[in-house]
Design brief:
The protein is an alpha/beta fold. It folds into 3 domains: 185 residues, Rossmann fold, CATH 3.40.50; 54 residues; 121 residues. The protein contains 15 helices and 11 strands. It is globular, with a radius of gyration of 22 Å. Bound molecules: flavin-adenine dinucleotide and iron/sulfur cluster (SF4) (3 copies).
């Protein structure tokens, strides 16, 4: 039932060997297809075997799932956007999807906007404490670990260390905080990410709480996830044990440590901005956005942006056409349209050709709004975005104008 926890692994040796932590996730995806509970699976695989180029793929033949087993730490494909754009938001088929917490949160936000049909989705969540930007990861491996990127076959973040595994079976580790001080390490949004266990998914899977490399800790987070997982046990698709009290405690402690680390990064990221006067802030952001080339990359990548005809298009008559950098209304419109729902996925900043720290700004505003309205984007599909939700009490106040 919902809330139950397990230690799980695949009964199939080939899957367990190729997988990251015993292959429970691949086994569940396989069961979902074979039992016809879903018509397709969305997972991530290394394109042409290149682990620095992880892409979302649609799989319908259970035999092909083996290609997706394993964790790619240098890839952050935009899974929510992929589901919405290329799979009609799961309105026409039942789909199982793997999702890191930011992917799962973006899926929830899209479902709130009726862009994804949650009833048709089975979200298999993966715990996560960070992904590395692909190009920078190669420089990191070359310059700091002094290894050829092609020789790296696996990465892991464990406590404060980044560990890499090499072709010859050896491992190298370095202090993650030190690497990040030098400008290497995780994507900026990952450093400040406080959602490391995807409890908004149907099932949350991760290595925390396990004592070996061959099993995964599972938490059943919804009734749908629990029914599915129990059917997989009954069908012999997965082997399970009960986690010990120590295992549950250890997972909790690792999560708490990751949250504390993220909060420190948030303080650091936001401190300089917070200390500025209003004029200084305006001048700082005006300078940043003076580099904008109006490529629309940030909008097109953002899983929260979904309007059919965007306000930023010239035909809406809002933003003066033909200007680069665009009028300040351009970033202002984008920011105000998503700042109550930003899930800190960092896709906008990754897409920005001019390295403008947009995700930092929007997430900072999102945290402020969240604190006022007691709202955390991506956690609960029934919690509507605060800037579009007006309580009866607010509507009843005199002298307050509310326009929709
Ligand atoms: C980037 C990343 C960071 C992680 N960090 C932690 C952590 O800090 N703590 C923790 O407890 N667990 C973490 N995990 C989860 C852990 O590594 C295992 O994925 C989990 O225990 C399941 O193991 P498995 O053998 O059952 O998975 P497998 O059977 O190997 O299946 C792994 C699944 O992950 C998908 N996948 C691989 N890379 C990505 C990606 N970049 N984005 C989305 N999906 C992907 C694959 O498509 C596959 O379906 C992380 C996973 C990833 C992908
Ligand atoms: S934002 Fe969070 S969930 Fe997403 S990749 Fe980074 S650490 Fe993982
Ligand atoms: S604004 Fe950026 S960080 Fe926030 S949800 Fe959109 S793409 Fe993700
Ligand atoms: S991605 Fe960057 S350069 Fe492109 S429109 Fe957005 S802010 Fe401007």
């Amino acid at each position: 039932m919902k809330g139950d926890m397990y230690i799980a692994r695949s009964p199939d040796k080939e899957t367990a060997d190729k997988a990251e932590c015993g292959g429970a996730v691949t086994a569940l995806l396989k069961f979902a297809l074979e039992s016809k509970k879903v018509e397709a699976v969305v997972a991530v695989k290394a394109r042409d075997g290149n682990r620095y180029d992880g892409v979302a793929v649609v799989i319908t033949d259970p035999k092909d799932l083996i290609e997706t087993a394993g964790s790619l730490h240098c890839a952050s494909p935009n899974i929510a956007r992929f589901l919405k754009e290329y799979l009609d938001g799961a309105f026409n088929s039942k789909i199982a999807v793997v999702a890191k917490p930011c992917d799962a949160k973006a899926i929830i936000e899209l479902a709130k906007r009726n862009q994804i049909k949650l009833d048709n989705l089975l979200i298999i969540g993966l715990n996560c404490t960070g992904t590395l930007p692909s190009a920078k990861a190669k420089s990191l491996f070359k310059e700091q670990f002094e290894v050829e990127p092609a020789d790296v076959v696996g990465e892991d973040i464990e406590g404060n260390e980044l560990i890499i595994r090499l072709k010859d079976g050896s491992e190298k580790k370095k202090d993650l905080a030190e690497l990040e001080e030098k400008g290497y390490g995780r994507r900026e949004n990952c450093r400040r990410c406080e959602t490391n266990i995807p409890v908004m998914a149907d099932i949350a899977c991760g290595k925390w709480g396990t004592t070996d490399k061959d099993s995964t800790f599972i938490e059943l987070c919804s009734d749908k996830g629990a029914d599915f997982f129990e059917a997989a046990i009954e069908g012999g698709a997965i082997k399970v044990d009960q986690p010990s009290g120590n295992a549950v405690e250890s997972r909790k402690k690792k999560d708490q440590a990751a949250v504390e680390s993220a909060q420190k990064w948030q303080e650091k990221d936001f401190a300089t901005l917070e200390e500025m006067s209003a004029e200084e802030k305006f001048s700082y952001w005006s300078e940043q956005f003076s580099h904008c080339i109006k490529c629309y990359g940030c909008r097109d990548a953002c899983p929260i942006c979904y309007c059919e005809v965007c306000f930023l298009e010239a035909e809406r008559g809002f933003i003066p056409p033909g200007e680069v950098p665009p009028h300040m209304l351009f970033p202002m419109v984008r920011i105000t349209h998503v700042m109550d729902s930003c899930v800190n996925c960092g896709q906008c900043q990754d897409a920005c050709a001019m390295d403008i720290p947009i995700s930092r700004l929007i997430f900072m505003l999102s945290k402020k709004i969240g604190a006022i309205f007691k709202h955390e984007p991506g956690m609960d599909v029934t919690a509507l975005p605060p800037l579009r939700t007006v309580t009866d009490q607010e509507l009843g106040q005199e002298g307050v104008e509310v326009t929709f």
